[in-house]
Each structure stands twice: as C-alpha cells, then as structure tokens.
C-alpha cells in the first residue's frame, strides 16, 4: 500500500459557552466550531512498527513523540480493532501548540482518518468515535473537520451550514495550558454556570443559505466564556485582541478555545490580508495567518 496523506486543519471556536462542571470534573461546553485553511500535514506508511517523525517549523514544540496524540490515538485504536494495520507517521508541524486551535487534536484526528483509510473503516465506526473521545475532547470534532455546534464534553456534534468567512488568526507564540484557564474559571465539581433560562435563550443559528451578515450578527451575540480567565493567565492575549479589533473593516474579533490564538472576521479577503500584513509588521514575533473559516 502506498503512503497516505491528510491535512490536520486548525479548529476555531467562534463561540464558546461553559455550561457547568460535571461531578466527574469534566466541563460541559457549547461551541460553534469552524475550521481554517491552515493546517499541519500528516502522512502514513503502513509497516510493522508504530512510529512518528516530526518535521516543520513547529517540530521542536511537539515534545516527545511517544506522548504525541497521534501515537496515543493509534495505540487506542489498535486495542479495539483486531489486526489493525499500523505503521510510520510523519508530521509536518506548522500550527502553534497549546494555542486554542486544536493543533494536536487535529493531528490525532488526521491519524484516525488515515488509519481508517488503510484499514477500510468508516469514519462513523463506533470504535473510531470512542478512540477520538478518549484521545482528547477536541478530537471528535476534528475527525470530520466540518462546521458544527459542539456540546457536552465534545461528544455531541450538530452540523452547521456555515458560509466562508474571511479571517485573520493570530497567536503571540505563548503557550497557554487549558487546565490553567479552567482553574482560573474556578468551577467546582457539579457546579452549573448557566440556568434553565439561559439555555432557553440560547442563540438560534442561521440555517442553510443564510448570508454572511446573518452569521456575523448571530456570532457577535455570542461569547467565549474562557476569554476573561485566559486574559488573567496570559495578559498578552489582550494585546492580540486589541490589534485585531483595531484593524480596518473588522467585523468580529474573539479568542478561540482556551487561547492564546485569537481570530477576526473581515468584510473580504483583501481586508483580511491587509490586516494580517499590518499586524505582522507591528509584531514580527507573532504567528499570523490570513485565510478563511468554513
């Protein structure tokens, strides 16, 4: 079998509500998730040994390959699928790590997609879904990598018909640990953050064919509940948000996930590219991407 390849696209939380913390310590979330046109690249060559080699500009930030989510996902799937064909993975790492855009989760999801192709498994195979959730909370949503409302602990996905949104994504190259942000949020085990009234008032997202304007209005009415605690953990996020909100023709700027990556939606691609160029000039040490969400 020839080598297989797949893109691990960045995940962006356009909104993120923390509904509460469960008795088991996990947080229940509700998030509108989109995927960007920037990605890592993962290739897979079937063989006798399970292995991972990491290259690319972000390789040094990936740490020990044995602890990488790609390897974790492959091992978990091997425990559930008898005779699973494994082999060697090669990861070309471009997305920043610990950045709130699911880079490691996207890599793990790409590994599961490649293993599914190599072993004639369907993406909705229950064993694949189980492994995705066990690997990490963002892996199930990264498995299909399509726009949706993600809820629960990442295990409930409702597809959305999201239009193409010109955007700029910025990361200050400062890693932010998700656990530190949730610790700052300070919810106790079993504590609800929203009441029945809040759930009933939950936004209704635009339907298929809705214009971009309708989506921006709906998204602007949302929030990211982790933005305030993340700002306390890493104040530079405030500088990133200011840079995006001060850009010309910006429609919405917000933090993704638990940070530190932030995104902004623009009127068009030209405005996004101009904003990205200006931010790169002012902050050459930051990671900046101009592209689109969908």
Characterization of this structure:
The protein has 294 residues and is α+β, with helices and mostly antiparallel strands. The chain folds into 2 domains: 4-159, Ribosomal Protein S5, domain 2 (2-Layer Sandwich), CATH 3.30.230.10; 165-293, GHMP kinase, C-terminal domain (Alpha-Beta Plaits, 2-Layer Sandwich), CATH 3.30.70. The chain is built from 10 helices and 10 strands. The protein has helices spanning 69-80, 103-118, 126-135, 139-142, 178-185, 196-200, 212-220, 227-233, 236-245, 269-282; strands at 4-21, 27-46, 51-55, 87-92, 148-152, 156-159, 165-171, 250-255, 262-266, 287-293. The strands form 2 sheets. Strands 1, 2, 3, 4, 5 and 6 form a 6-stranded mixed sheet that branches. Helix 1 links the parallel strand 3 (51-55) and strand 4 (87-92). Helix 1 (69-80) runs parallel beside helix 2 and helix 1 (69-80) runs antiparallel to helix 3 (126-135). It starts with a strand and ends with a strand. The model has no long low-confidence stretch (mean pLDDT 94).
Could you list some keywords that capture this structure?
single chain, 294 residues, alpha+beta, Ribosomal Protein S5, domain 2, Alpha-Beta Plaits, 6-stranded mixed β-sheet, 4-stranded antiparallel β-sheet, 10 helices, 32% helix, globular
Series of secondary-structure elements, N-terminal to C-terminal:
EEEHEHHHEEEHHHHHEEHE
> Could you name the CATH class of the largest domain?
Alpha Beta
Question: Roughly what is the average pLDDT, rounded to an integer?
Answer: 94
Helix/strand class:
alpha+beta
Q: How much strand?
A: 25-35%
Gyration radius, in Å? 19 Å
* Count of alpha/pi helices: 10
Report the span from N to C terminus: 32 Å
In the CATH hierarchy, the third-tier topology of the largest domain is known as Ribosomal Protein S5, domain 2
Helical fraction: 25-40%
Shape: globular
Number of domains: 2
Low-pLDDT stretches = none
Profile the largest sheet.
6 strands, mixed
- Oligomerization category of the chains in this entry: single chain
Number of strands: 10
| Known CATH architecture of the largest domain | 2-Layer Sandwich
């Amino acid at each position: 079998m020839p080598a297989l390849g797949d893109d691990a696209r960045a995940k962006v939380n356009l909104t993120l509500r923390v509904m509460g913390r469960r008795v088991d310590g996990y947080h229940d979330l509700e998030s509108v998730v989109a995927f960007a046109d920037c990605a890592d690249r993962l290739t897979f060559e079937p063989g006798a040994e399970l292995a991972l080699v990491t290259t690319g500009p972000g390789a040094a930030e990936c740490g020990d390959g044995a602890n990488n989510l790609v390897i974790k996902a492959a091992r978990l799937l091997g425990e559930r699928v008898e005779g699973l064909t494994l082999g060697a993975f090669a990861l070309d790492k471009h997305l920043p790590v610990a950045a709130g855009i699911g880079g490691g989760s996207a890599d793990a999801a790409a590994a599961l997609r490649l293993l599914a192709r190599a072993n004639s498994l369907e993406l909705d195979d229950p064993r694949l879904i189980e492994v995705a959730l066990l690997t990490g909370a963002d892996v199930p949503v990264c498995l299909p990598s399509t726009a949706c409302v993600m809820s629960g602990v990442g295990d409930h996905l409702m597809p959305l018909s999201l239009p193409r949104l010109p955007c700029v994504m910025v990361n200050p190259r400062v890693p932010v640990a998700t656990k530190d942000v949730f610790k700052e949020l300070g919810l106790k085990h079993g504590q609800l953050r929203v009441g029945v009234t809040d759930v009933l008032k939950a936004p209704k997202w635009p339907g298929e064919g809705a214009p971009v304007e309708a989506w921006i209005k709906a998204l602007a009415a949302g929030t990211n509940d982790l933005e305030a605690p993340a700002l306390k953990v890493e104040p530079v996020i405030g500088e990133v948000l200011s840079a995006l909100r001060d850009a010309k023709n910006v429609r919405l700027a917000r933090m993704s996930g638990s940070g530190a990556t932030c995104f902004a939606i623009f009127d068009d691609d030209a405005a996004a590219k101009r904003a990205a160029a200006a931010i790169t000039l002012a902050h050459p040490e930051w990671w900046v991407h101009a592209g689109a969400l969908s």
